[in-house]
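Let us begin with a simple case.
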Amino acid sequence: MLSQNKKTIIQIKNLSVTRGNQVVVQNVNANINARDIVAIIGPNGAGKTTLLKCILGLLPYTGDIKVFGKKPAQALCDVGYVPQRLSFSKHFPLTVREFLQLSVIEAASIPKALREVEMQAYANRSLDKLSGGQFQRVLIARAIMNNPKLLLLDEPTAGVDQEGEKDFYEIIKHQNKAHNATVIMVSHEVNVVYKHATQVLCLNKNLCCMGKPKEILTKEVLEKLYGKNSAIRQHKHT
């Protein structure tokens, strides 16, 4: 029997997604446990974002997904999401506080969320005055305002500088450790996966493998995912 902190919270069975005549994801089976930090890796076009959106219930699929024992759309109150690209211009004339108010009913949750990402001093600053890293923190605050049990992140540090990226992952680890949030993140950075993820899901339309990064991310697996001539190299760890 699984211990309490290893309870399965997401079950994916025979998941397939097609767009027109193109197979995007094919026959994926995976279980994700509570309080894990799961990285989804794979080449461009592997279906990583598609898989994330299926877990959110945003795309049609065949097969079955259960999130906290429910259909994805029924579990959204327990899920936070940071998209790869937000279809919203940060040049729109809004302050950070006003932006967050668009996504929450209880305004009292905004200061707490901003404290969690160390952005409380920026509540009245216009979005267009924020750096890329600061705006990304605001998006995390937006995702955690309802204290989600599950946090989904789609390439969350794209366009963020190295220092901002470091801070970002510290925030994510805090959500995981202090608030028991399960985290699933799409990443292209194998070194980040080694450092921060407890589980890795290797996807190239099919599920190639899943397990602990140090155990499964061999040279052979990386070549299977990215090809022998890829610039990605196996991480050296002790």
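The second case is a distinct protein. As before, the sequence precedes its structure tokens.
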Amino acid sequence: MPITAPCVVALTWRLEDAQDRFIDALDRPVEFLFGGDDLLPGVEAALSDQHTGFETRVQLEPEQAFGAYDPALVCFEKRAVFPEHLECGMQFDGLPAGSATEGMPKDALYTVTEIYPDHVVLDANHPLAGIALRLRLKVEDVREASQAEIEQRSVGNEVVTLLGSGAGGTMH
């Protein structure tokens, strides 16, 4: 079956930055809706009209992936508004209750990047913003999409957000 929208592709991949530093790998196939919100346009373009067994390398510049890094999406919050247990890399949907920061997106996913005794640095950029990505992809399977997958524009697995089109996506 050729890869045409809408269909579901099962992929494995190795994801690296432009300096060939490892970021992520899928060793077991994971399904994605081709023609929905699961895959970035550059990935879909590389897979279009291909078949099971197809392998390729794709390079995506930041503007083709998760956008440029925006320093305006970094803010400082008082340490007191966070739970006692806090680690770099933890993520919060929106700013914490009691936040004093104004002008930041309310619905963004914020990542803790630094912790100091009096304040915490939060970053609302996607973890891969500003990074050129190199993907080695292999199509493990192709199947027809269900009506539910077509309607929700996604297969609905958690890994999807790594390559999905949503700028607020997260790596799981």
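The first strand starts at residue 7 and ends at 17. The first helix runs from residue 41 to 47.
Keep these points in mind for the review questions at the end of the chapter.
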